[in-house]
Design goal:
about 110 residues; 3-stranded mixed β-sheet; 3 helices; 3 strands
Length: about 110
């Protein structure tokens, strides 16, 4: 329910060289499965979005203004109801992804 557009200025002010955006996306995978994609690939996915800006446009703007390399980690949701929080399957997947990122970036 929090949109990334609300953090756009903070991201740009941070002056990152790389940006990894993690988001839920209906990809036809099993709940909790994820795919790392280039934002330019978003043209091959359905355009439906809960974001104020389409995610592809948001990524293009961030790329132009920050000069950072951007990647998307999209996770198949278990439920898409607003305000429901994470299901146990998605919490487990989130922990696995968090642990993996910490290991990779350490």
């Amino acid at each position: 329910e929090t949109v990334p557009e609300g953090y756009m200025h903070q991201i740009i002010d941070f002056n990152p060289t790389h940006i990894l955006l993690i988001d839920a996306a209906i990809l036809g995978l099993k709940p909790g499965e994820s795919r790392l994609i280039n934002p330019k690939q978003l043209t091959t996915f359905p355009a439906f979005s809960t974001h104020i800006l389409p995610l592809r446009i948001f990524c293009e703007y961030l790329e132009k203004t920050s000069k950072a390399k951007i990647a998307l980690l999209l996770i198949e949701p278990d439920q898409t109801d607003f305000g429901e929080g994470l299901t146990p399957t998605i919490k487990l997947s989130a922990c696995y992804i968090t642990d993996s990122l910490i290991r990779i970036l350490s």
